[in-house]
């Protein structure tokens, strides 16, 4: 009974993380806005900034990985490998989120010392969609930190609850 | 026993790498007098400073590297001065979880600073942000050196986490094998 609830909890967490990462990818890819002032019209796309491209690629890798691990059978020997892969995926998620937030903060507030003006005033809908994508990425990260501790608990038996 | 020595060696390297990254970025500052405009024939000079505090990503970089190097120092001290600390499961699992969290922290800090540095080096013509590395070359060089040290720290923290997790797995296998004959004897 304990094993069944453990396995079910792990599956639910992983499916939620898969949905969050996929949502972040989709929200960022579909963000595109054209703004025109006077005769100039500029198009804001996510691919203009390298950090957003990295965010999309990293979250795509994470969602594919989650989807594949959802179908791993229970008695497979690969579960010990899943612990290390979960750690690497968590590091990938935090690095991509941190880079995207750093660059988005410059886009929203600008950097007065470097002479960089904020761009959110001209393309507000683009900025809002990027914010939504970053929030989804944060949710995926939090779920993956829980999943990491959960994977260790499933593979190791720290309090020797199992009696042979 | 060899595993403990490998772990100690890795922790010393990670401590040095993250401390070096934090110090080099913390002392990063360059002042330059530039010609801003020209009225007639007299050029107007302005003194501009590039400091690491101007960019929030670099502030996060310094703070995170200080935290990770402090964690490594704590683990080194615990390992040297209390070698025969009882190997209980709680010690091993808390060390493993702390190592994993700090590995994520240092990877986040190094990556944020790397992308901000790329923005400063190449600028962004879509957002009309000029590059600053052509005018503040020493600032950019020092920042690049700090970034290299931080990425070395990331790789080392990943290895340290892997070794900690493997120690945990081996200990749990050993105690699972040891407890089964004893419980069987108790039943009999």
Structural category of chain A is mainly alpha
Overall average pLDDT of chain B: 86
Helix fraction of chain B, binned, reads over 70%
Helix/strand order of chain A, N-terminal first: HEEHHH
Number of strands of chain A: 2
Count of all domains of chain A = 1
Q: How many β-strand runs of chain B?
A: 2
Provide tags for this entry:
heterodimer, A: 164 residues, two-stranded antiparallel ribbon, B: two-stranded antiparallel sheet, 4 helices, 72% helix, transmembrane helix (chain A), cell membrane (chain A), membrane (chain A), transmembrane (chain A)
Structure description:
The complex is a heterodimer of chains A (164) and B (188). Chain A contains four helices and two strands, in the order αββααα. In chain A, strand 1 and strand 2 form a beta hairpin. In chain A, helix 1 packs antiparallel against helix 4. Chain B is mainly alpha-helical and 188 residues long. Chain B has one domain. The longest helix of chain B is centred in the C-terminal third of the chain and has 51 residues. Chain B starts with a helix and ends with a helix. The chains are: A mainly alpha (164), B mainly alpha (188). Chains A and B meet through strand 2, helix 2, helix 3 and helix 4 of A and helix 2, helix 3 and helix 4 of B. Chain A: This is CASP-like protein. Chain A: It is a multi-pass membrane protein. Chain A: Belongs to the Casparian strip membrane proteins (CASP) family. Chain A: It comes from Arabis nemorensis.
